[in-house]
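Researcher: Structure for this, please.
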Amino acid sequence: MSHWIIAPVVLPAIMAAILTLAMRHHPALQRVFSVASCVALLAIALALAVTAARGGISVYELGDWPAPFGIVLVLDRLSAMMVLLTAVLALLVLLYAIGTGWDQRGRNFHALWQFQLMGICGAFLTGDAFNLFVFFEVLLIASYGLMIHAGGARRLKAGVQYVIYNLLGSTLFLFALGTLYAVTGTLNMADLAVRAAEIPVEDSALLRVGAMLLFLVFAIKAALLPLHFWLPNTYAEAPAPVAALFAIMTKIGAYAILRFYTLIFGPDLDVTANLIDDVLLYGALLTLAAGMIGILGARRLGRLAAFAVIGSMGTLLIAVAVFTPQSTAAALYYAIHSTLGAALLFVVVDLVRERRGVLAGALMPGPRMAQHGMLAALWFGAAIAVAGLPPLSGFVGKLLILDATRHMADVWLIWGAVLATSLVAMLGFAQAGSVVFWKVNGSEPEAYPAPQPALPLVAAFGLLAGIVALSVFAGPVMGYLEATAAQLHAPAVYIDAVLGQG
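Model: Predicted structure, token format:
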């Protein structure tokens, strides 16, 4: 049992406490220790990913209590990949927050950041459904504070809406867990899979109710239409670094759907087989359409970026809904791409807003900005990545998804939706880019308070470099992801590792 498995949860938790209790009046020290924590988290995540790549599943038993009686953390290829993605994103976006001074526009930013990372990493690593709820609440409580960081009436209003909607999701989560516990007597995921398979068909009504309630909870987290209403205002009004980190939060919903509906309610379980497949697929198609049309209709850059997240989640969930190893591998590739792409888009939008003075993010012609050409290049990179145009990884991801769905009865509907919405997104980004970067009034940059530091651009180009690397190394990455999907679709291996039956 390797104690390193719990490190992605314990490290940010301890660092958050230290930042709050010992450094709350020392901003420079907060920055140093917060960055150091994220660097250490990245190193640990890399080591865990190497361990998981060997093909085994590692289990950490808290208090040395074996499953299903104790709480367990489980490291497999999927959880290792998601923790590594979180660590990369967190470090780059934190550097952006420090470089732009966003972290000093309110209080306790770095402590909340660390608590957020604790919740996200815990959600990916936990092997217990109730503790998934606990980690959801940890990351949501931290996100409430980060959401209203720096204040403002519009941000506070969006934050209240975000809180209310997620409280509804948390309530449904408790109902779902209570229902499943009443039926099976356990909430350990591996044990749930065993107990659910033993329930006779005639006594399975409550099990199906619990499975559907869980799906609603995860659909809220993943912003699946029509449960996406919380996302546009939340992401558009959140501080830019927070919105960029939130790019990984919607992936938690997709991760949970994949985990639960391959391990517990998989296609081999007759009582829940194909329970959510059609609902998820058609909901994903509608989500994709709504998001990409929203890009075309947006009148502010923040809302454009928020609708881009919705559209990318629709594309991702189309692949998830197929529930085959090939489609799962494609979904995981697109999940990595869309996380980096959405974060880059929010960062670029913020860089533009900071340089446009009173116009901020409004899609109206304005004066030429400082570093105009560099920002235009970053916008172009983010736009073609999110829209899914060649040669970046969004194009590769969409090709993989199209290939994974070609055997389906609805293949032409899926292909038509993906290709048409890509065109709509391209038009929306082109329209916004032409207004901001081409239709300028005058040739001189508008004055702004002080020269901008280099660190925000380093973070932005770091995210873009991640997208380029994902494109260049698509072959090796897909090799890992195909093995990940194969492991995910062989739940017996996971169950044996957790319950010690192997």
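Researcher: Any notable elements?
Model: The chain has a mean pLDDT of 89. The longest strand covers residues 58-61.
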